[in-house]
């Protein structure tokens, strides 16, 4: 078959999703517009309640985006200037910049070779007297080793904030991420498993006082239910708006079904790619389940394979080619190399993944990968 540059299977497509629920989304937007309540109104309050219930979390606090969710969660647990926060280097840079925004220092930790999430043993070696918190990332929808990291936190007196930006409905040993540690931070960027039609995010918390701190920090420091112009602390304007909340409420109703669709596609990929010189993700076991924001394989000939797939019209992308500790923005901050992180950056490749991906499309991608290896 002659290669073509015309895209046949995109890496991500929201078109089918929006075709199916577009009428409901438009109705929700009109409802929000007609209400005349645009800031911290009924749509935000209802979404917070519904999202918390979906996760099994006591609280959810809607904020403006996932990066602000991280920063607010970290500040609420007490992170401030000169503190250190343990973060993985193999993640989107916002995980680290949220730390830096508070005047704290991100301390980069290597990853587990199988899950590509923070390795608890490496985190233990990175703790210093200035450490204040651990910020594990449930990367690509794969849960991090929360038992190991929480045990370390208890031993060292540290807080734990889960970066759940890519992990909506990911579970770890029977518990939904975001409802396990002191706080969780979610992104609803449009491409996420639960996506808005613009920027949006949320912080989850189990402690009432911590949740109230997050509400104050997102709303210029105002006490919830208090006088309009009484500010208990220095906060910022980081509120989730009513229009985004209205859309998220519509999509949240479908999230469980969409997540199962992703897992079914992943299972078909794993079966179809078995036996090839690739490292494949794990579906999960023992109550831990990947939510497959991305389906990421690892290949020693990654760049060649990527070109091969692109020539055949199959979407693919590299997450993340430059680890944070090697970024110019953090040049010189990493005191040591992170070999497993650097290996993942050289070999990781995302294949098409979205709930509406047809089995025949998964098979087509698998055939293209097999062709690359001459199988």
Summarize, please:
With 375 residues, the chain is α/β, with parallel strands linked by helices.
Please describe the topology of this protein.
Layout: H1 15-35, H2 42-55, E1 59-63, H3 66-76, E2 84-88, H4 94-100, E3 105-109, H5 120-126, E4 131-134, H6 146-156, E5 159-163, E6 171-172, E7 175-176, E8 183-187, E9 201-205, H7 208-218, H8 242-252, H9 255-272, E10 295-298, H10 302-311, H11 339-347, E11 348-351, H12 359-372
Parallel strand pairs: 2-3, 2-4, 4-5, 5-8
Antiparallel strand pairs: 1-9, 6-7, 8-9, 10-11
Helix pairs in contact: 1-8, 2-8, 3-4, 3-7, 9-12
Strand content: 5-15%
> What CATH first level of the largest domain would be assigned?
Alpha Beta
CATH topology name of the largest domain, in short, is: Aspartate Aminotransferase, domain 2
- SS class: alpha/beta
In words, what does this structure look like?
38% of the residues lie in helices and 12% in strands. The mean pLDDT is 96. It folds into two domains: 17-252, 3-Layer(aba) Sandwich (Aspartate Aminotransferase, domain 2); 254-372, Aspartate Aminotransferase, domain 1, CATH 3.90.1150.10. The chain is of the alpha/beta class. The strands form three sheets. A seven-stranded mixed sheet has the order 1-9-8-5-4-2-3, with helices on both faces. A two-stranded antiparallel ribbon has the order 6-7. The protein has helices spanning 15-35, 42-55, 66-76, 94-100, 120-126, 146-156, 208-218, 242-252, 255-272, 302-311, 339-347, 359-372, and strands spanning 59-63, 84-88, 105-109, 131-134, 159-163, 171-172, 175-176, 183-187, 201-205, 295-298, 348-351. The chain is globular and about 70 Å long.
